[in-house]
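FAQ: What does the model actually see?

It sees only this:
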Amino acid sequence: MDPFIEHHLGVTRRTLLENSAYGLGGAALSWMLNRDGMAADHGNAASLGAAGPLSQGLPELPHFAPKAKRVIYLFQNGGPSHVELFDHKPKLRELHGQVMADSYLAGRRFSSMTATVKDRLVLGNVEPFAQRGASGAWVSELLPFTAQIADELCFVKSMQTDAVNHAPAISFLLSGAQLPGRPTMGAWLSYGLGSANEDLPSYVVMTSVSKGTSCGQIFYDFYWGSGFLPTRFQGVKFRGSSEPVLYLKNPEGLSREVRRGMLDDIQAANRLKLASAGDPEIATRIAQYEMAYRMQASVPELTDLSNEPKSVLDRYGPQVTEPGTFAHNCLMARRMVERGVQFVQLMHAGWDQHNSLTTELYTQCRDTDQPSAALVLDLKERGLLEDTLVIWGGEFGRTPFIQGDIQNRKRWGRDHHPYAYTVWMAGGGVKPGISYGESDDLAVNAVKDVVHVHDLQATILHLLGIDHEKLTYRFQGRQFRLTDVHGRVVKEIIT
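And it is asked to produce this:
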């Protein structure tokens, strides 16, 4: 039979439609790009060609000399209570039990749990504050280890956000949008800067939750998703177990050499498909197969803590050798940035004290305080803090008024509060030993040097050498960026 006829007889309906669609789509795309003057736009270059090495970033980045080379985000899911931990307001205790004046709350909306409460009673902080270090920063007695490193920290006490519920607020802080579907901060940095280590992902996520907590928060995958960016830029989640990444081990009887040969054949087939179809997800598949192969050797070495001195393990606290704990994840974060991982996102759930300020808040502080401080000190002693940005904070704060019965101390709680809250930052070009911004005398509203979530995002990118207005990706007819159409760099906190 004539080979030409034989080929056409073997073409399936799906193949015909696929190839026709690409041909028509390509012609239409070419016409539209020429019409709009976008043919020379290289903003999406990383997603269009062959897979290429994982280390490649956008050629124009960084835009200027970075102060930070890597980020560790200690994300405290649930909204840590700023009025319990960092924002010292003596008037709260002075007015404890009294009705909060309407002037503080006018025009403010709260979650459905307290939106209809008529008389909002002021609730004083549950433990006393003290000024710490040479900087005199106010830190609660709930955080004795953080108090010891106060002079290393930059406290931002005037944070504000737009969302009043957890998932939208977390998504907003990490991706710039309350609705899922946008790339998260780590994905943007992986896309823009590439990777410093081809043996480990550039963006890693680890999660934890305190034992016995009643918090029902869920770690949604979109908290570390790549959105409309190619999926090769999404965060790689390490599980809290002795096997942090599934399916890295070869099946019984399959040698590493045989596995290498199989991957070479699969890659050759994928490259042929990529050349004919142009689908960026095929490039992702090629890159991720290669990453998985290299991680077979790198992950066991990364997770082996046997070479860590006892003094280091003791510094992180008693839970450090227990996979899945915040302490273990903090030590792992240090080991990752040592090996070139550029964005490590630790997420610890349970900071949602609607009725457990006098119980579970203490547990949260005990489980996270010592490891957080240990991480900062560990990085400093190894010469890594100077160019590693460490961020500690949640998606919002807690209301200065009570949620619940003020006569029942065991059930004291606070609702979500987006109008003023605190985060701290260390290293990576941030001024140490300062407190920036202020809330009013009851910690209800940020009133001085307000820092919006988009401002925080712009500042983080700036510290990494990125102009937040220029790191964009074209999707559905417009250029998107992490800060949307907002954001200012808070230059006052930068060295």
